[in-house]
């Protein structure tokens, strides 16, 4: 049973003659094959429904009754046994027919219906087809959109159940690929679509440049024939059978009619092939094979026209018009390949049934008798498992859904500037092919029209976000409509249209364009940079100045001013100050574990010796004043041993603290990647912050005690009272270190080291200047004051 397109388009019925001849050709081949269905003759009974549902139902009941005038639920069959129904109905009519056939359990093999809902074997258990399901068609369209990066599209579809489901699948797939459907227009599949309806729909769809037309051929034919529907520069993707248009438009051109379609027309067509020897069969077939009610006179005469290809041209004479010439120039002869496969699939299933154990007696019992006990549902298990190679070498079988594993060809059709029509296969989609080879497209083979100066056409709601930017979706806008915002510092996007920026690794940072992560700049206070060089120079200068002062004191060691307040303490203090100035150099340069340890230990111990020396000096001043009183017992404590013991006893606790610090949690170098943007700071971690502040606290304690004692002794009568200078030096020292702590805590990186070096240099130079500069002034510039007579006088 074969059924064709709508009665509204009688010209399109002409392609059904190819389908009919393919059926006859396949049946004759099978009957002539002694190995396939031996001792059995395959026949057929054909009816045309004109895609009119009542006609289709009447035709179905006629087949079941076996009579011209049908009687419901009554079979009066005088010919062979009915094995299955092969049909070429559109999707919805095929679904309705399946509901009828399900009652009688007859197999239904379709060579036209791609209804995706009919892949459900529970609802349609007896349905098979030799074309691909629309599920594959939707996947192919999504692959095409993704390949050209078309994310802003409109869809026009009929409102039948299968198309509605397909549109839903397309919407979900487009959104998963980052796109969105701007407009979805539907029209009734039960009514003729008018030019006014199409015009209104197109006005709403003009926001996009890519249009998907998802509907049967008769509706697509009506849409594309309306003037000014095809907008130059737009791309149309259709699922309708396009082979019929090729011949039709050639004839329109021959009649000087204008076709408004542009070249940007991509159609998905079930993969077709031409059957070997079928063209010869068309040329030589007996004209009387045609049923009387199919009226093939016009179709037949066209094959005699000189413009018809030699492969199917008949040797006769005729006077045909260009319009009736439309079916002659078809690249593929209707759905002949699908019909051919359907007939052979049925024949092989029947053959398997005959050769099985249950049908082994059928052959021996003759042509008809063996099928007297035939039941239609017995054929289903053989159809499900049928597998063979057709005459073209293609393997034919049905998958678990009853679908033939076959793909689609992508057709580019349009008009060339020479006036000829173009119909080229530019790609394919086969979901059963290996991954990576399932979708192919040859962009160079597509003849885009002149409106598309930059290819492919831009089909986006928003401009692509370049590397260095990410998408920002506004609430309420479609998913493919967005703004581009630059990536924040430390994040990059190295691809186009990234949804979010990616954070750089911890040891890297984003470049200026925010499209690549580059290694962070490693920073530390080095000798090469100006700040490090200046501090180094200052430290060395103060060291040399201290060394000069020590030389002066050694050179004038026997003078009264040097001998005053214990010259050994002065030597110890000057040496310790020299070490203080030199220890600041350890803070400059790339921090290592050993330098980090030396920084704090050398700093803490040298400063404790300096402050202990100053404390010993202060105590010496007080003791010297008290020892001058008659009967004082402090005279015996005025020796150098006492002062040295004070220095040693006050320095040992600091040494002990440093040892405990080094043993418990010593300082170490580490990479600080968070403090400064785009930089890696090589710093010294204090290890134990408690130990660090204990060392500073002990220094503060020594300074405070020295300051307190010196302050009390500042007004003691003496010709050269050193307590005044010690008081002022301790005031400078304490002021520096009190201001150091908040400054130190508020800075980061190498500037923290700079603050610490500055505190060391400032406090050390304060001690040096306040205590020793006045003495050097007297020694070098006022030598007359550096004698016992002057001191005794005062």
What does this structure look like?
The protein is of the alpha/beta class and 794 residues long. It folds into 4 domains: 10-132 and 275-397, Response regulator (Rossmann fold), CATH 3.40.50; 135-270 and 408-445, 3-Layer(aba) Sandwich (Rossmann fold); 469-519, no CATH class; 530-793, Rhodopsin 7-helix transmembrane proteins (Rhopdopsin 7-helix transmembrane proteins), CATH 1.20.1070.10. The chain is 44% helix and 12% strand. It contains 22 helices and 22 strands. The strands form 7 sheets. It has an 8-stranded mixed sheet with strand order 5-4-6-7-8-11-12-13, sandwiched between helices. The chain has a 3-stranded parallel sheet with strand order 1-2-3, with helices on both faces. Helix 5 (161-176) links the parallel strand 4 and strand 5. The radius of gyration is 51 Å and the shape is rod-shaped. Mean pLDDT is 80; it is low at 1-12, 244-261 and 358-370.
Primary descriptors:
single chain, alpha/beta, Rossmann fold, 4 domains, 3-stranded parallel β-sheet, 22 strands, disordered N terminus
Secondary structure blueprint with pairings:
Layout lengths: L15 H17 L20 H13 L19 E3 L3 H14 L3 E3 L16 E3 L4 H15 L3 E7 L2 H16 L3 E8 L7 H11 L4 E5 L2 H8 L10 E4 L4 H12 L10 E6 L7 H7 L12 H6 L33 H20 L4 H5 L15 H6 L1 E3 L5 E3 L10 E8 L5 E9 L9 E3 L27 E4 L10 E4 L4 E2 L9 E2 L4 E3 L6 E3 L1 E3 L6 H26 L4 H4 L3 H20 L6 H35 L12 H25 L3 E5 L6 E7 L3 H24 L9 H25 L3 H32 L6 H6 L1
Parallel strand pairs: 1-2, 2-3, 4-5, 4-6, 6-7, 7-8, 20-22
Antiparallel strand pairs: 8-11, 9-10, 11-12, 12-13, 14-15, 16-17, 18-19, 21-22
Helix pairs in contact: 1-11, 2-3, 4-5, 14-16, 14-21, 16-17, 16-21, 17-18, 17-19, 18-19, 19-20, 20-21
